[in-house]
Amino acid sequence: MSHASIVFSVLAIPFIAGCSLLTPVPEQDPPQTYYHAPVVDAASGTPVSLPQLAERLADQDVVVIGEYHGHQGAHLLQSRLQAHLYRHRPDQVLTMEQFDVDQQPVLDQYLNGEIGEEELIADAGAWPNYQHAYRPLVEFARHRNLPVIAANAPAGIVRCVGRNGTDYLDSLPEEHKRFLPESPFAGNEAYREKFLGVMGGRHGSADDERMQNTYNAQLLRDNTMASRILEARESHPGHQVIHLTGTFHSEERLGTVASLLQREPGLSVTVISPVFMGQPAGQHGRELPVANNRRKGDYLYFLLPLPEEYRDEERGREAMMEQFRNAPKTTCK
């Protein structure tokens, strides 16, 4: 080997090593901190890095990222995936469960630089965790002039449907009805059984009227979000929609996703769903539980479970009642 070849080989070693260090490697181990969220292809069980995932999803019409509200790992994954998808498809729309459709004018004011962030939070009724959970996603879109769509049904209308039933919508003035989708209570039996199975165990019989009203309020949210996603696609042809929502609205392709596909069957939709590891922080060495969770999404991401909020049941009940007492007053008249 010539002297020049030896020198080149020596110089190339750190360059090659550096390239390998820059190449994203899928996380194969369970999450070790609350910011870790390894991703797996649900069908094959193989780990996927976020750049790889974004490349696979580049041609999808809608990417639905389910979340456990308030989990740092979920929100970090959403923000990182948003940026990776943008590299493949700069024509992007962000639709959010976290803002109600009637607050779109306030959201637009913020995106247009007419009001500040604290004004957005106060005037649009932003969720209490907006700044640490959703600010990164909204700011990514704002600085690139990307649309951000308020997708959820108006909270007051949802509460009144849950309280008074579906006939409540008939009493609404026309200016309020314009926020609602066609077929606001469309659903399917699989979703109904899942919802009533979960909520019935917490709040009484799945057969009582109150529980049926609660389910219909859930359907109103799902159908409103689905219609807003389709409106976003119509207003912004060729754009990829990234939709953020609580995982119950999307996992197993039920809820919002089912409504979306009922309304536009030819749509390509990918669902990314979170799974709790079921182990406390600090315990390592367990495999990612893919097999029992495959149905939840096309891709799964794994999170450490959140700490218990209350071990004193009475104190937990009192805290919940305090939240109800402090909830916005809705007259439903």
UniProtKB/TrEMBL annotation:
<feature type="domain" description="Haem-binding uptake Tiki superfamily ChaN">
    <location>
        <begin position="53"/>
        <end position="260"/>
    </location>
</feature>
<keyword id="KW-0732">Signal</keyword>
<keyword id="KW-0449">Lipoprotein</keyword>
<dbReference type="Pfam" id="PF04187">
    <property type="entry name" value="Cofac_haem_bdg"/>
</dbReference>
<feature type="signal peptide">
    <location>
        <begin position="1"/>
        <end position="19"/>
    </location>
</feature>
<protein>
    <submittedName>
        <fullName>ChaN family lipoprotein</fullName>
    </submittedName>
</protein>
<dbReference type="InterPro" id="IPR016773">
    <property type="entry name" value="Fe3_uptake_reg_CjrA_prd"/>
</dbReference>
<dbReference type="InterPro" id="IPR007314">
    <property type="entry name" value="Cofac_haem-bd_dom"/>
</dbReference>
